[in-house]
Amino acid sequence: MMFDLPDSETLYAALLARDAAYDGRAYVGVSSTGIFCRLTCPARKPKFENCQFFATPGACIEAGFRACKRCHPLSAAAGNDPMVRRLLDALEARPSYRWREEDLMALGVDASTARRAFKRQFGMTFLEMARQRRLREGFTALSAGEPVIAAQMDAGFDSPSAFRAAFARLVGVAPGAFRKDAQLLADWIDTPLGAMVAVACRHKLHLLEFADRKALPREVAKLQKRQPGGLGFGRPEVIDQAAAELTEYYAGRAARFDTPLAYHGTAFEAEVWRALRDIPAGETRSYGQLAKDLGRPGSSRAVARANGANQIAVMIPCHRVLGADGTLTGYGGGLWRKQRLIEIERDLSATSA
């Protein structure tokens, strides 16, 4: 059962006191460890500035935190439902496996029943939880120094034909409607945080987004409207350059992007996007701070809208903007990815200092 969370100070006091009144009603994610716990967890208490509070375990997972092995917040949230506990045990045994509904059926579990139970208990389905866990495992592998290929546990596409079919479904265009002589060409880039869709002409990168971003179809439609000449499939040198730079970035070796970018927006939006690129890797800003840096104090809402209109993820680092209180705010690729990107850059900044 969800309820409106009180302010962070109240919840932090409850955490220090291990107040059982909040057990199952609030959870804490600790940014310094990447772990989320029940407020009654016996582990040593984190600093206030490292705490983020959530109403459900699902919200913690979506923000990129993994469950604590001391207080077992997922098991506690499962209650007495044997089916939920069984699936959680199965996920724990195979965290890197790409679970499907057929796998649930093989375990004798009705997929629709599991979907409702997990939504009710965790705010997300079992398959969504499994996918987030798989991506988290991939990031952990990369952070531990394993090869990038070992971290790509959820590339999203197995072949060019699979990408073409998935992309066509995503943007609502039949595969046959894509032009061979198009000026804009689309391809995908595998990353440890999931596949990214890249759209480029021969000279510039026009779009770079995570493939599961809900706004992607709308962004592609807007791009086609601004850039006539059709859309096709292919991999110009610009996408190869972007892929190479992203590989260095995710491996924690460099945060410099020289790929030429096309800005499709108003003059003000372009100004905001350039300011985002001026924020050093490893640092963050609030919307208000960014507005002041632009010489436009009081325009934080307009800056936030421009931030959200960005169609080139990571390279135009809108993930470096936080709420006024330093907490993670909306990110089209998911808050868990925003957290991971900030961690990558902080680690990179620390090693290069």
TrEMBL record:
The keyword DNA repair applies. SUPFAM superfamilies: Ada DNA repair protein, N-terminal domain (N-Ada 10), Homeodomain-like, Methylated DNA-protein cysteine methyltransferase domain, Methylated DNA-protein cysteine methyltransferase, C-terminal domain. CDD domains: ATase. Keywords: Activator, DNA damage, DNA repair, Methyltransferase, Transcription, Transcription regulation, Transferase. NCBIfam families: ogt. SMART domains: HTH_ARAC. Residues 107-181 form the HTH araC/xylS-type domain. It comes from the Bacteria. It comes from Tritonibacter scottomollicae (Epibacterium scottomollicae). The lineage of its organism: Bacteria, Pseudomonadati, Pseudomonadota, Alphaproteobacteria, Rhodobacterales. This is Trifunctional transcriptional activator/DNA repair protein Ada/methylated-DNA--[protein]-cysteine S-methyltransferase. PROSITE patterns: HTH_ARAC_FAMILY_2, MGMT. It catalyses: a 4-O-methyl-thymidine in DNA + L-cysteinyl-[protein] = a thymidine in DNA + S-methyl-L-cysteinyl-[protein]; a 6-O-methyl-2'-deoxyguanosine in DNA + L-cysteinyl-[protein] = S-methyl-L-cysteinyl-[protein] + a 2'-deoxyguanosine in DNA. The keyword Disulfide bond does not apply. InterPro entries: Ada-like_dom_sf (IPR035451), Ada_DNA_repair_Zn-bd (IPR004026), Bifunct_regulatory_prot_Ada (IPR016221), Homeodomain-like_sf (IPR009057), HTH_AraC (IPR018060), MethylDNA_cys_MeTrfase_AS (IPR001497), MethylDNA_cys_MeTrfase_DNA-bd (IPR014048), MethylDNA_cys_MeTrfase_DNAb (IPR036217). Its cofactor is Zn(2+).
